[in-house]
What does this fold into?
Amino acid sequence: MFGTCFGNVRTTVPLVHNITNYVTVNDVANVLLACGASPIMSDEPRDVADITAICGGLNINIGTLNERTIEGMFTAGKKANELGHPILLDPVGAGASALRTDTAIRLMEELELTVIRGNISEIKTLACGSGTTKGVDADMADAVTEENLSEALTFVKSFGKKSGCIVAVTGAIDLVSDGEACYVIRNGRPQMGKITGTGCQLSGMMTAFVAANPENRLEAAAAAVCAMGLAGEIGWSRMEEGDGNSTYRNRIIDAVYHMDAEVLEKGARYEVR
Amino acid sequence: MFGTCFGNVRTTVPLVHNITNYVTVNDVANVLLACGASPIMSDEPRDVADITAICGGLNINIGTLNERTIEGMFTAGKKANELGHPILLDPVGAGASALRTDTAIRLMEELELTVIRGNISEIKTLACGSGTTKGVDADMADAVTEENLSEALTFVKSFGKKSGCIVAVTGAIDLVSDGEACYVIRNGRPQMGKITGTGCQLSGMMTAFVAANPENRLEAAAAAVCAMGLAGEIGWSRMEEGDGNSTYRNRIIDAVYHMDAEVLEKGARYEVR
Amino acid sequence: MFGTCFGNVRTTVPLVHNITNYVTVNDVANVLLACGASPIMSDEPRDVADITAICGGLNINIGTLNERTIEGMFTAGKKANELGHPILLDPVGAGASALRTDTAIRLMEELELTVIRGNISEIKTLACGSGTTKGVDADMADAVTEENLSEALTFVKSFGKKSGCIVAVTGAIDLVSDGEACYVIRNGRPQMGKITGTGCQLSGMMTAFVAANPENRLEAAAAAVCAMGLAGEIGWSRMEEGDGNSTYRNRIIDAVYHMDAEVLEKGARYEVR
It folds into this structure.
């Protein structure tokens, strides 16, 4: 199934409209190309409706948001909704500032989102207005672990149901749920957290996967998580002595570039709960 | 001749002012340094005139344009025209949105451009207001091939003549014409299309080449195309098993860094028609 | 001492708020992660006060400044001052445009800065309103050399005293002074100048070092300079035939990733004058 989802990205080459932060945008573009999709970036309110109209999906990432790009997010989102395109929201730093929290919540309220993907702290902020955000990385105390897994499952499913979105909480253990089923994914490596933007990259790829698999969005979102995590494992296996986070970044994107349906099927480590 | 053009970049170290998208800007800066030029980025209307005044050439790339940066493009362009500096326009995504198409056309009308560099779809949009743009990558049906080459030559020469600019259409086969002669260039590798921003990088480098060769702008523009394509070939020859588009990006810039006049002369594959 | 300063970064994981240019921002984020700190980027006036409040230090870099981000710099800076957080100013391109010069000077006047880090030309601009800036790279004639070292020392100490800041002038020889003592640092390699943003990366890291060592800010700033230069040396030693500036960039960040207190202590080359 995950292999098929990935194959559909490679064969349909979805064009993904990204309104995303300027920190990690280059890696988002390269990982989208690596997985077989095609990226376009545009955040100007007067530009975004035209751009999103020619795309297959919209990836909204609120890192380095500003008043102009926030307006762009709503304009693009409304157009995408009109056209029935899937929208992914990556609420980078929700909980870290009032503007980020409010913007993420307003995007949830005013747009029909398909997927929300973030770390546990960001997702908790959206779910309950609480959660402690230490910058853009998940607070350690909140991390999903084997110990608190069943509690986390209940939380993610409940937020999926309440929001009507696929909710993807990523961390050491990743959870992807539509409110009913929940994929529990154990791909990836902790060293990925030492690279800026692996989460942003995943959001880009997930938008492509969901756009290319309109009939199986939950599976597609989960497949993207597995693909990114597996790329982290493959990339890590190619690290040489002295290589660090900058080289690891390249190796992960390279691994996505070479991944195919079979590799993903074989390497995906998940259960459905 | 191409070797001399490149040599002039290394000896005169032209400072290039770039108003360019935030997706690929880092690679543009690094490739400019790699080829021996010096980059500076500035897009604020209140900043650009001063910056462009100390530079030797201006590279305007409309990817991720916004209202403020559009104003910056015109302000910088007028100053560059006043000072006789060459201006290159890279109409990223012209045809994909009204704002991009209109901005590119207005830049052509209100500024005296030296070079316009884009893919066939973008250039067709500027030439005829038509052309189908699929995002920022050239539409396959429109690609310049050996089959439609003579038709494409006629088109590029005619647009060169009409616009009064050097026109560079890049793709599998690259065409660079001033309306009279046309360089037909066959350097490069198809895998370069899987890296975000090789076109943007070429625009930066081409601005440097043109700035460093005021007496031979057509040759300089063509030399930059050959240099980028050749770097793609050299970079590819250094790829190892498992390397993908992210590593390829590094290897291409590295190849520019090590290229010299002799390597370029020897590796350039072109004819003049 | 330098080892201890570095160790404190790794153990306290300071969160650094960066208002920085979009050219080199990704490398700044990755080098901050590499040295053990945690980066967050935000430049929107309505966002920056909240963000800086949860951080331990503020890095203001004026490359690609615009009217909105300038406002963000002042808003963030005032909040950081209120909270007693250290602020570093990197006056990229001061002297190259009136807007950059004026903004840097106003930031000095209206904020209580902890560190100012730039090349000699930028620092001279701030000190005397003179200095010739050739883009964002230091003018050769102005470079600190063994020949003009004692003159440069006098200048840096005097500007340190006058400004009340730690002043770090980086180049072939680096000088870091609080107006009394001056660290003269000889780590690094000339090829680092062929990579865009090694200065910006250093500013990010220096902010982290200063934030993590409130009692020893001068030593911490000097330690960051040594760490970056030493990473340039270690990264260079790992270069293979054909590697150029793009690969070198990765190897430097990788070297920071693997550096520890002992390596830094052993490799730091400096004297105090």
Q: What stands out?
A: The first helix of chain B runs from residue 2 to 12. Chain B has a mean pLDDT of 95. Chain B has eleven helices and nine strands.
